[in-house]
């Protein structure tokens, strides 16, 4: 029996670069004294180069300048096989795509815990790889199976292009994540009318949908990724967050009116910007309770899908139609107090927060119309033309707000809902009497 | 000479991840995982164990120049420390030492499973047969990620 080949190529071990189990790096000072530490990020750059994150470790930095040789120890997470990379330091980059990608990842992870400047990336060290060697003791080896997700992107693309309205785009997007790509826990956030925030409009696989939850662009893991138009993969939440907590004590995350969708035991996370014509339309967010659930191949497939969703959203035609008159009678029950605060358009049902902003304004307008005239059928067009709502000039924004409003109503009450009746038309269904209370000032939020 | 106190000894001997680095005459560094790190009564000598099948280059480097560094890092809180010193001796472990290695591997499996690593994968990281490396500690450094990383202990 011949000994197994121990020399590998970088492309043979893609999962070892996912950071699921941290890598170690050893260097030598000019007097030969070794130095060894764990390292946050090792990324393959091409067939014979890797990029290393340069963060805290002054000694490693000094050593690589004095003596360019380094050895990295990597673990293949699905097998536990150990590999060494013999490296020769070539240069440090402080800008460029690899630097930006690494910087965004590190900033996003620290922002996730409400921390900033913890992982300040000083640069990426570009090193030539002289050898990739498997350590002794791993005789059985099977090639990694190829991921077939990219093949499914074609069908996703076709279905998205067939979607006729925002509802269909969003449901198709969730189908793409959960059924076609097998990511059961997904949510979609869209950029709001101010361009400063993202709000959750659709989700699948969470105990609470999180519809209406918000993130400020530039803050938190999702916000940082959104601001930089970069996807971020966290392959091991437990490890990466404990790492960040070691570097700086956690700060409060602040109050959120509606919590973001979140698995109880989230271990992996991938957030991907949805870009159309270089503009951010929203974020596609995936979670998993398994470490290493999202690999480089997933990032590639989801990146394509996210941009397809963005293109489908911005391409939605403004479909309008005249309204149709009809009436729905409310049941004779105790009246629900619907309180609306004009300052932020927040709406409360029997003192329970429901929604605010544009969606709150839309609901208030519908309810008042219903209350004053008995009308329950409306068209998107008349809402869009209503100057009092101050809708921004983004053609898909109204539909997104109506979907959000519908989901919030579905979650929060069983007596008030919005049903789609035809393209561009919907019905307000009221099953209990309402007592509308308009307040001019600001609400309790 | 650096003297390891009781608190630091307890930490070194907990369920930490352990790395051992050496270098050869051509200036090439070498890193391997270490197991069962333990501090002797004198507080200045550390025993650490490497898989025999993976230890030949490390031992050759130590015979050549004696320089060694060992870093321990706790998987849960990421507290890390690095010890640098000179090689004293190598040898086959006693039964008691083998038990110590087993104990450390068990503790390491527990601490990595707390952050979600599958124990069956972690168990693939090591081989049973080990060799002891003893070294005298000259310097110790705080290696915990953050602005203080690299400061002497």
Straight-line N-to-C gap of chain A: 73 Å
* Overall radius of gyration of chain B: 15 Å
Helix content of chain B: 25-40%
Supply the helix-strand structural class of chain B. Answer: alpha+beta
* Largest interface summary: A-B, 51 and 49 residues
Strand content of chain A: 25-35%
Explain what this protein looks like in three dimensions.
The complex is a heterodimer of chains A (445) and B (153). Chain A has 445 residues and is an alpha+beta fold. Chain A folds into 3 domains: 10-134, Pnp Oxidase, Chain A (Roll), CATH 2.30.110.10; 150-241 and 259-314, Beta-Lactamase (2-Layer Sandwich); 336-439, Arc Repressor Mutant, subunit A. In chain A, the strands form 4 sheets. In chain A, strands 1, 2, 3, 4, 5, 6, 7 and 8 form an 8-stranded antiparallel sheet that branches. Chain A has a 6-stranded antiparallel sheet with strand order 11-10-9-14-13-12, with helices on both faces. Chain A has 10 helices and 21 strands. Mean pLDDT of chain A is 81; it is low at 248-255 and 318-332. The longest helix of chain A is centred in the C-terminal third of the chain and has 19 residues, at 296-314. The relative contact order of chain A is 0.11. In chain A, a hairpin with a 2-residue loop joins strand 4 and strand 5 (49-54). With 153 residues, chain B is an alpha+beta fold. Chain B has one domain: Pnp Oxidase, Chain A. In chain B, 27% of the residues lie in helices and 37% in strands. Chain B has a 7-stranded antiparallel sheet. The mean pLDDT of chain B is 93. Chains A and B meet through strand 2, strand 3, strand 6, strand 7 and helix 6 of A and strand 1, strand 2, strand 5 and strand 6 of B.
Blueprint (SSEs and pairs):
The complex is a heterodimer of chains A (445) and B (153).
Chain A: E1 7-8, E2 23-28, E3 34-39, E4 42-46, E5 49-54, H1 58-66, E6 69-75, E7 82-93, H2 97-112, E8 123-134, H3 149-162, H4 166-180, E9 185-191, E10 197-204, E11 214-216, H5 220-228, E12 232-234, H6 237-247, E13 268-276, E14 279-288, H7 296-314, E15 336-341, E16 346-349, E17 352-355, H8 357-373, E18 377-379, H9 380-385, H10 397-412, E19 416-422, E20 425-430, E21 434-439
Parallel strand pairs in A: 15-21
Antiparallel strand pairs in A: 1-8, 2-3, 2-6, 4-5, 5-8, 6-7, 7-8, 9-10, 9-14, 10-11, 12-13, 13-14, 15-16, 16-17, 18-20, 19-20
Helix pairs in contact in A: 2-5, 3-4, 3-7, 4-7, 8-10
Chain B: H1 6-12, E1 17-23, E2 29-33, E3 35-39, E4 45-51, H2 56-65, E5 67-73, E6 80-91, H3 95-114, H4 119-122, E7 130-142
Antiparallel strand pairs in B: 1-2, 1-5, 3-4, 4-7, 5-6, 6-7
């Amino acid at each position: 029996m011949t000994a197994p080949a121990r020399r590998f190529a970088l492309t043979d071990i893609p999962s070892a670069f996912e950071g699921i189990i941290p890598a170690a790096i050893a260097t030598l000072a000019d007097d030969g004294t070794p130095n060894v530490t764990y390292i946050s990020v090792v990324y393959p750059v091409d067939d014979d180069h890797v990029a290393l994150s340069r963060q805290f470790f002054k000694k490693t930095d000094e050593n690589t300048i004095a003596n360019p040789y380094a050895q990295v120890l990597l673990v293949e997470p699905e097998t536990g096989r150990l590999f060494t990379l013999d490296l020769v330091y070539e240069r440090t980059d402080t800008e460029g795509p690899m630097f930006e990608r690494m910087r965004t990842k590190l900033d996003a992870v620290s922002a996730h815990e409400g921390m900033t400047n913890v992982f300040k990336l000083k640069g990426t060290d570009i090193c030539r790889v002289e050898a990739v060697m498997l350590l002794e003791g791993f005789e059985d080896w099977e090639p990694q199976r190829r991921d077939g997700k990219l093949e499914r992107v074609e069908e996703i693309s076709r279905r998205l292009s067939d979607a006729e309205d925002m509802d269909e785009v969003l449901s198709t997007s969730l189908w793409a994540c959960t059924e076609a790509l097998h990511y059961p826990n997904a949510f979609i956030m869209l950029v709001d009318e101010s361009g400063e925030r993202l709000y959750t409009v659709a989700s699948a696989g969470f105990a609470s949908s999180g519809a209406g939850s918000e993130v400020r662009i530039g803050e938190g893991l999702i916000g940082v990724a959104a601001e930089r138009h970069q996807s971020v993969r966290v392959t091991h939440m437990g490890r990466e967050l404990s790492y960040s907590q070691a570097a700086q004590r956690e700060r409060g995350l602040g109050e959120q009116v509606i919590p973001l969708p979140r698995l109880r035991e989230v271990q992996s996370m991938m957030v991907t910007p949805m870009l159309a014509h270089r503009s951010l339309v929203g974020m596609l967010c995936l979670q998993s309770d398994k470490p290493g659930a999202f690999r480089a191949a997933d990032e590639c497939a989801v990146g394509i899908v996210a941009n397809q969703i963005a293109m489908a959203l911005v391409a939605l035609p403004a479909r309008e139609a005249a309204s149709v008159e009809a009436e729905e009678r409310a049941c004779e029950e105790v009246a629900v107090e619907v309180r609306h605060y004009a300052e932020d358009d927040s709406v409360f049902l029997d003192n329970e927060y429901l929604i605010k902003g544009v969606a709150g304004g839309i609901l208030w307008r519908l309810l008042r119309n219903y209350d004053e005239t008995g009308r329950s059928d409306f068209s998107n067009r008349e809402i869009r033309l209503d100057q009092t709502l101050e809708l921004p000039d983004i053609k898909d924004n109204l539909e997104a707000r109506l979907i959000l409003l519908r989901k919030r109503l579905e979650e929060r009450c069983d007596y008030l809902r919005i049903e789609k009746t035809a393209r561009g038309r919907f019905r307000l269904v009221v099953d209990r009497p309402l007592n509308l209370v308009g307040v001019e000032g600001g609400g309790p939020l | 000479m650096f003297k390891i106190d009781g608190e630091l000894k307890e930490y070194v001997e907990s369920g930490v991840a352990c790395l051992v680095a050496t270098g050869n005459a051509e200036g090439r560094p070498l890193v391997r995982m270490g197991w069962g790190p333990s501090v002797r009564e004198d507080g200045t000598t550390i025993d650490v164990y490497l898989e025999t099948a993976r230890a030949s280059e490390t031992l050759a480097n130590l015979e050549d120049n004696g320089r060694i560094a060992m870093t321990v890092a706790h998987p849960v809180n990421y507290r890390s420390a690095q010890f640098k010193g000179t090689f004293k001796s190598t040898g086959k472990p006693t039964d008691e030492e083998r038990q110590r290695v087993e104990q450390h591997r068990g503790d390491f499996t527990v601490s990595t499973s707390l952050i979600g690593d599958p124990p069956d994968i972690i168990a693939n990281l090591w081989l049973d047969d080990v060799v002891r490396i003893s070294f005298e500690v000259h310097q110790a450094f705080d290696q915990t990620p953050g602005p203080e990383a690299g400061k002497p202990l």
